[in-house]
Amino acid sequence: MARNRVRKGRPLDGWLVIDKPTGITSTAVVAIVKRAFNAQKVGHGGTLDPLATGLLPIALGAATKTVPYIMDGTKRYRFTLRMGEARDSDDADGAVTATSDVRPTDEQLRAAAAALTGDIMQVPPVFSALKVAGERAYDMARDGRPPELPPRPARVDRFELIERPDADHAVFEVESGKGVYMRSLARDVALACGTLGHIAVLRRLRVGPFTETDAISLDKLAASAEEGPASPELLRPVATALADIPALALTSDEVVLLQHGQALGLLDFVGRIPQTGADGIVRAMDGERVLGLCRLEEGWLRPVRLL
Fold it and tell me: Where is the Pseudouridine synthase II N-terminal domain (predicted)?
């Protein structure tokens, strides 16, 4: 007789924003959080490289359903470009592959950053999780078979030089959407100035609605879990991830219909429909409680993902 698989751990729902230290992978942070809370289901909202620090949103339980909306949100980074050295990983963890004596001026760096702002085509780092013929690019690179990765569309909303500590280093802030590689931006801004470069320091400052004020350290999490599982009071509500999506208030009858997966005619929502983006996505609300996400299309409100 087949047995139903029972998940181990507590059925917790919510978001935890970790201030990730350097030298640890995002997957390792997820494992630490899962153990600390003794949680059933845990995932993260956007990988950070081991070298990088900063915001790593961790989703527990029902929050994992909202991960795509976090990953699609605006992200803000600050990185330090080290000029004069190309590295195989495009960051300080890699091996030096070439050097250059050229050191651009601040004006040249600003002009190069401006040219890399907006809708661009970007070649990902060879040390990335992209798959090539079923293999991860970083596995191929480690085996001495670095793949030729084609350029991909990327959207960079802001790319600004904010500090020049010395001739070898420049500090930038970047705001971008999903799938933009900071290591590639650092490499490419150096190349555009006629030199070579890589990321020496990288920090993520924002992910969607989450900022540094929302984050806690792994040390604080460990302290919370010293005498048993970490407190659920550390978690933010599942709906926090959807704060940037327009809200639509529903009546009790509409809530029941929606929870049964039924589409609702938009004529009943006249005067209540919020301004939406091109995707027509709204956050369906039962009072202060988020039911899930719906799409306004062809005269109907259709459920997309219910929480």
Answer: 34-182
